[in-house]
Amino acid sequence: MAHSDENNRTPGSLRDSAASAMERYFLDLDGQTTTDLYAVVMAEVEPPLLSAVMKYNRQNQSKAAAMLGVNRATLRKKLKQYDLL
């Protein structure tokens, strides 16, 4: 329940950073339309997430996959997709 309670959120949280980034994105659109926003956001967010998790786990794909909550094959697919392998 803490995620939805504005009073209990940590300043500078990942959620707040994402919300601020999206607000800036929409301001920059300046009324223009956009499509495939989910794909755009994921293409921006996944590579640094995967890189950080791999670095934290010293390039151990099994540990990184467990941390992310995905299977190792999915992790490898994503790493290849973003040329991180």
Question: How would the blueprint of this fold be written?
Answer:
Elements: H1 14-29, H2 37-56, H3 61-68, H4 72-81
How would you describe the overall organization of this protein?
The protein is mainly α and 85 residues long. The chain has 2 domains: 1-34; 35-85, Homeodomain-like (Arc Repressor Mutant, subunit A). The protein contains 4 helices and no strands. The chain is globular. The mean pLDDT is 91.
Q: Return the structural class.
A: mainly alpha
Q: Which consecutive residue ranges, at least 5 long each, have pLDDT under 50? A: none
User: What is the CATH homologous superfamily assignment of the largest domain?
Assistant: Homeodomain-like
CATH topology of the largest domain: Arc Repressor Mutant, subunit A
Average the pLDDT over all residues and give the rounded result.
Answer: 91
Outline type: globular
The proportion of strand residues reads: under 5%
- CATH architecture of the largest domain, by name, is Orthogonal Bundle
Q: What is the tally of beta strands? A: 0
CATH top level class name of the largest domain: Mainly Alpha
Explain briefly what this protein structure is.
The chain is mainly alpha-helical. It is 64% helix and 0% strand.
Q: Which key features would you list for this structure?
A:
85 residues, mainly alpha, Arc Repressor Mutant, subunit A, 2 domains, 4 helices
